[in-house]
């Protein structure tokens, strides 16, 4: 006998919306703390303002380290579990606990503990969420599903700093924290209502592919855009390249196909195009995490901007990427990934240097009392525009190559990666490089800002 409301509770639209809310919550939680962290450290925990940058670096690096370590075991156990509901609900409940601990933290130890819990739960939500999506959505619909869920994810990155900064300044600390707690409770309710399809997870993941967190980074905001989304960052001579997420990959040349000996991660990391995509993903997330670590304190100390203004600056950094996503998708459809991504990196380099100029007194026009503020705002908006050419290219490159390799090996042995396939491990592979960027970004930018200054830090990044 069917469960009550089975038809609408297992509907594709509800499944996609539920996963989308989960990704929104994960990226929202990561970015929410950006404008509010200095207040928590200096006002609530009574720490010396001169130590704020150091603790900010440590807290953001800690999140990346925890998520990086947690991703492989979470993916391993998820791939061995035919039902995703229990691990998904556990991840959401744990995230709620971690967020509550951060909100009520009365000591730096409790703040660290909450961040650790939040990092583990966020990684699990992303991996299990996309595994659930892959299990319940037909592969011919997977591209559209990814587009919708990635739009949710990018919305979380955009909304987090804006909402927290505005609520903190206008309505106070506790009112601000009701927003992420309400999002998590809504997500738990949606997951309890949602039912998975009766036909369990497929043993061979569909070639539509999936992607990880996040993105802000999580950069995690990646939107598939059509037939040429899998165009290579390297020349297309790789034996595993193919042009559509929704078509089966061609047979690979067996002389170049990796054997199953090294296991899933060893097999994928022997593919040059996977490594190229990983490098692009890693570098972009190092830069993105560096923004989060250094910009809020720089804006406060140089321009004396409060939390709401800081949140609006981050909105200006992310919003162009949302608006330009369809246009960049069309561009990639025509040209592939390699050329737009290369142009993006070339244009991004001088803008990163220019980011450090306002307030540095290097030039007369860059001083805060002259044109420094206008230059800074214009530069951040420009970085947001150019970043749309780079964001997501690495993750989708990894997806295209990895799914091709997976299908080739599983066509010969359906259980080569276990009874339930390796879809979660594919997500975790992207999650690993994403979170490695979240580790190195705060660590490098924070240490450089303390050792030299903001201007030289972003000059070196550029």
TrEMBL record:
Look up the domain of life of the source.
Eukaryota
Q: Where is the composition biased (Low complexity)?
A: 201-215, 230-248
Principal subcellular localisation of the protein: membrane
User: Is the keyword Transmembrane helix in the record?
Assistant: yes
Q: Where is this region: Disordered?
A: 199-258
Spell out the coiled coil positions from the record.
Answer: none
- Topology relative to the membrane: Multi-pass membrane protein
Q: Which residues cross the membrane?
A: 14-37, 57-75, 87-106, 112-133, 145-168, 174-193, 274-297, 309-331, 343-360, 432-456
* Domain Major facilitator superfamily (MFS) profile per the UniProt entry, residue ranges: 15-462
Give the record's keywords alphabetically. Membrane, Transmembrane, Transmembrane helix, Transport
Q: What InterPro entries has UniProt attached to this entry?
A: MFS, MFS_dom, MFS_trans_sf, MFS_Vesicular_Transporter
Q: Which cellular compartments is it found in?
A: Membrane
What's this protein's name? MFS general substrate transporter
């Amino acid at each position: 006998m069917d469960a009550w409301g089975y038809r609408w509770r297992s509907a594709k639209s509800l499944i996609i919306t539920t996963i989308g809310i989960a990704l929104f919550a994960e990226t929202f939680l990561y970015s929410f703390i950006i404008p509010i962290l200095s207040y928590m450290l200096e006002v609530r925990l009574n720490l010396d303002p001169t130590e704020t940058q150091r603790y900010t670096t440590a807290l953001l690096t800690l999140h990346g380290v925890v998520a990086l370590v947690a991703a492989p075991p979470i993916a391993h156990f998820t791939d061995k579990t035919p039902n995703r509901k229990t691990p998904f609900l556990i991840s959401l409940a744990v995230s709620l606990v971690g967020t509550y601990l951060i909100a009520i933290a009365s000591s730096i130890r409790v703040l660290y503990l909450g961040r650790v819990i939040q990092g583990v739960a966020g990684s699990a939500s992303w991996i299990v969420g996309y595994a659930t999506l892959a299990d319940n959505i037909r592969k011919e619909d997977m591209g559209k599903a990814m587009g919708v869920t990635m739009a949710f994810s990018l919305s979380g990155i955009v909304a987090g700093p804006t909402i927290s900064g505005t609520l903190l300044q206008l309505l106070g600390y506790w009112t601000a924290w009701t927003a992420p707690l309400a999002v998590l409770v809504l997500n738990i309710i949606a997951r309890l209502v949602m039912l998975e399809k009766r036909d369990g997870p497929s043993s061979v993941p569909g070639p539509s592919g999936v992607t990880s967190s996040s993105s802000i980074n999580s950069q995690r905001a990646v939107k598939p855009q059509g037939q040429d989304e899998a165009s290579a960052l390297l020349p297309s001579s790789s034996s595993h390249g193919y042009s559509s997420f929704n078509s089966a990959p061609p047979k690979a040349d067996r002389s170049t196909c990796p054997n199953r000996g090294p296991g899933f991660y060893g097999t994928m990391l022997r593919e040059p195009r996977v490594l190229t995509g990983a490098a692009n993903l890693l570098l972009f997330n190092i830069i993105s995490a560096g923004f989060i670590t250094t910009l809020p304190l720089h804006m406060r100390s140089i321009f004396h901007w409060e939390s709401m203004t800081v949140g609006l600056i981050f909105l200006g950094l992310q919003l162009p990427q949302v608006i330009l996503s369809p246009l960049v998708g069309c561009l990639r459809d025509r040209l592939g990934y390699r050329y737009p991504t290369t142009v993006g990196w070339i244009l991004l380099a001088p803008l990163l240097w220019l980011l450090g100029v306002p307030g540095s007194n290097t030039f007369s026009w860059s001083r805060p009392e002259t044109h420094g503020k206008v230059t800074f705002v214009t530069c951040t908006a420009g970085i947001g525009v150019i970043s749309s050419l780079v964001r997501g290219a690495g993750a989708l490159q990894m997806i295209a190559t990895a799914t091709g390799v997976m299908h080739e090996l599983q066509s010969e042995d359906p259980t080569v990666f276990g009874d339930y396939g390796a879809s979660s491990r594919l997500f975790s592979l992207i999650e690993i490089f994403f979170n490695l960027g979240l580790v190195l970004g705060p660590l490098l930018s924070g240490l450089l800002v303390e050792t030299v200054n903001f201007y030289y830090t972003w000059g070196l990044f550029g």
